[in-house]
Design brief:
19 helices; alpha/beta; 734 residues; Rossmann fold; 6-stranded parallel beta sheet; 7-stranded parallel beta sheet
């Protein structure tokens, strides 16, 4: 009998659970190779099927399934970037649980630059070091002249500047005329200087600024609603909270609803702090995005200004979140993960135990209710900076003062614009409709041009000479004859768009300089910023714009705003229609009279007696919110109740409708939850897919996400062409 002590079995390899940024909810187990010390949060590269993907170690797996031991793959490598902090991983789990989205899809938003992560690759530079080449060509001469200063130049930059190919440079390197050297790493972004310019505040602004400074200094979770009228200086006030956070060595995130807003904002930030902040939005080049991502993760980016996706970046030391124009519906993500950036920003602040500021002149009803109940601290700015008055608002009853036939600008509004132009002031014509006309029909046979794959009319775009679907992008050249009856020159444009308004304005005011601001006419963010600068510098007399002009822009000479169709937003089944119309019209009229003169706004309407119009004309914001909140509370709509929607779509109507009915019949019975539908969606066909909607309504205290999760567990599964989208807290009801 062997008396030697029993041998300890060798410990097996470490196993970690890795979350991959694909549409999967669960993490996969991988072996950790010897010599690799991985912890939760580490960014790694792992094999997934036949490809390598960037992923994140989510947890240590102490009890792996022994049956899978021989089937597990190894982690390929650890990527040299800072690990994702626990607070960000918690946010990913929370958002996925709340929105019923796969965790991998939420993680994907934090790893947007996954293919570019890791140390920045060394860029080659070239320097003139040797004698001229034996064979001189015009191209070689140009590159030698370009590098004649003897300094190190980027290889591709030098080729572009000299107008030659990179091959010309390579040839000169081979001959010893040029030498290749690595370019130095770009320096870290300079830190904002909190004392660069000390602002001159009004008494109201001083109180608000001090309140926000104290909140930022508290370094604990708190929510403040910076509630200031348009032109009250909300930006300058919350800059004081930014300054306090920067002094404390922490990072600041400023969310904005539109990247178009960032141009003027960056300039205002630089005037206050001496440097521009880091940007994050879809218009950045891949290299810039990768560099900014790395700076944010390393804590080198002190202030980040970005669109909603910036919320999920891996901040090293986040100390403050600001949500500007918090009421804006652009904060709602409409595809993929259906999250609302404002609400998730509050969640992130709560997880990180940091303060958050929500800023708006027209807060969302949800935020207003939270402020009234004391959950959020209200920081008021009740008057405009510099003693400027709020615009006077008048309603033009189109039943009594209609425009001439074929026109859309009423005589009183036309007269007011003429007077403003004569005084060398700017006027704004607002219409939330892109293109020339929303409908084109044939006078001979009545044929209406509609999209081939959507349940929508084609919009006439005269500038582009095309008829376009605004839902899927389908377009055709503007025809000269009716495809249905063959009649020539019989097509008529019905209704106005901003392009048609410009045509009318050019006819009514031939000496005025006009400009159309519309998202479909702007090719890049640089173009947008250039056009906004033209307006700010006074090189435009009449601005014609969509909702693009309603948000955050400052036009010093603008004193008149005319809303061409004030009723437009009220004519749909959206339960938030009144709120959105009030916010939009209040914001756009608020562009007037911010720096000089007395602003005035005109509302062309067929419903001057509507509560929204009456509240706007009376400048009685309190009355509007009182009415809207009382209605929401009585009907148990948010924030007094919860909503979710399910959208079923398929390539044919019977399949979509049949599945939607089966889905509804599988809904768990709960007296606190009401399932409405299925019903055909208002926009019944989009991109060739037939759509049916279910609306789920519950009391506020119900765990609606949990109810939906239980429902989907027993519901029939989608197959083939069927698709099911779940949207918790929906903002769109189309």
């Amino acid at each position: 009998m062997d008396s030697s002590p029993p041998q300890t079995p060798p410990s097996g390899p470490r196993i970690v659970d890795v979350l991959v940024p694909v549409a999967l909810d669960r993490a996969y187990s991988y072996r950790v190779p010897r010599g690799l010390d991985l912890k939760p949060g580490d960014v790694v590269s792992v094999p997934l099927g036949a490809r390598e993907v960037t992923a994140v170690v989510w947890a240590e797996n102490h009890n792996p399934d022994p049956r899978l031991h021989n089937r597990l793959k190894d982690v390929s490598e650890q990527i040299e970037v800072p690990p994702l902090r626990a607070e960000l991983r918690t946010l990913v789990d929370w958002v996925a649980n709340y929105t019923l989205s796969p965790r991998g899809m939420v993680l994907r938003m934090t790893l947007r630059m996954g293919e570019h992560l890791g140390p920045e690759r060394v860029r080659p530079g070239v320097r003139l070091v040797g004698p001229p080449p034996q064979r001189m060509t015009p191209a070689r001469r140009r590159i030698i002249e370009c590098l004649g200063d003897g300094l190190l130049h980027g290889k591709s930059d030098a080729a572009r500047e000299a107008g030659v190919s990179v091959g010309v440079i390579d040839g000169l390197v081979d001959e010893g005329t040029l030498a290749v050297e690595p370019l130095p790493k770009p320096p870290a972004p300079p830190a904002p200087d909190p004392t660069f310019v000390e602002p001159d505040f009004s008494p109201d602004q001083k109180i608000a600024a001090q309140t926000l400074r104290e909140m930022a200094a508290g370094e604990t979770f708190a929510v403040a609603l910076l509630d200031g009228v348009t032109g009250s200086g909300k930006t300058e006030v919350y800059f004081e909270a930014v300054a306090e956070t920067v002094r404390r060595g922490k990072q600041v995130l400023i969310l904005m609803p539109e990247i178009a807003l960032t141009g003027q904002f960056l300039d205002r930030f630089a005037q206050r702090f001496g440097v521009k902040p880091i940007e994050w939005h879809s218009e950045l080049t891949p290299r810039t995005r990768a560099r900014n991502w790395a700076a944010i993760a390393a804590g080198e980016a002190h202030v980040v200004v970005g669109a909603r996706s910036a919320l999920f970046l891996p901040y090293a030391n986040l100390g403050l979140v600001i949500v500007d124009e918090e009421h804006d519906q652009a904060y709602k993500q409409g595809d993929g993960v259906h999250y609302h950036a404002r609400d998730m920003a509050v969640v992130r602040a709560h997880i990180a135990k940091i303060p958050i500021v929500l800023a708006s002149a027209t807060p969302s009803v949800e935020t207003e209710v939270n402020a009234r109940k004391g959950r959020y601290m209200r920081v008021p700015l009740p008057s405009r900076f510099g003693g400027q008055h709020m615009p006077q608002i008048e309603a033009i009853d189109l039943r009594r003062a209609p425009p001439p036939r074929g026109r859309f600008i009423s005589p009183p509004l036309a007269e007011a614009i003429q007077y403003a132009v004569e005084r060398r002031e700017q006027a704004l014509l607002f219409l939330n409709r892109r293109g020339y006309a929303p409908l084109t029909l044939c006078r001979a046979c009545g044929h209406r041009f509609s999209c081939n794959i959507c349940d929508a009319w084609l919009v006439d775009h005269r500038f582009r000479q095309r008829l376009v679907c605004h839902h899927c992008g389908f377009s055709i050249p503007r025809p000269h004859q009716c495809p249905h009856c063959g009649a020539e020159e019989s097509l008529a444009a019905i209704g106005p768009g901003v392009e048609r308004l410009q045509e009318e304005a050019a006819s009514l005011f031939p000496d005025a300089r006009t400009m159309v601001l519309s998202s479909d006419l702007i090719t890049s963010i640089e173009t947008m910023r250039a056009e906004l600068n033209e307006i700010a510098e006074g090189r435009v007399d009449i601005i014609i714009g969509t909702q693009l002009v309603a948000k955050g822009h400052n036009f010093p000479r603008l004193n008149l705003v005319g809303v061409v169709d004030a009723d437009l937003g009220l004519s749909n089944g959206d339960p938030r229609a009144a709120e959105r119309t009030f916010q939009l019209l209040n914001q756009v009229i608020g562009r007037a009279g911010r720096e000089q003169g007395r602003g005035v706004g005109y509302l062309q309407t067929y419903q001057p007696e509507h509560p929204v119009m009456k509240a706007l004309v009376a400048s009685d914001r309190q009355a509007f919110y009182d009415t809207e909140i009382e209605l929401r509370e009585r009907t148990l709509y948010p924030p007094f109740g919860r909503l979710a929607s399910m959208i079923v779509s398929a390539g044919d109507r019977p399949t979509a409708e049949g599945f939607a009915r089966k889905l509804a019949s599988a809904a768990p019975r709960d007296e606190a939850v009401q399932v409405l539908g299925p019903a055909e969606a208002p926009l019944a066909v989009v991109k060739g897919r037939y759509r049916f909607r279910l609306l789920i309504k519950s009391a506020r205290g119900v765990d609606l996400s949990g109810y939906l999760r239980d429902w989907l567990a027993v519901a029939p599964k989608t197959r083939g062409n069927l698709k099911l989208e779940v949207d918790v807290d929906p903002q769109s009801f189309l």
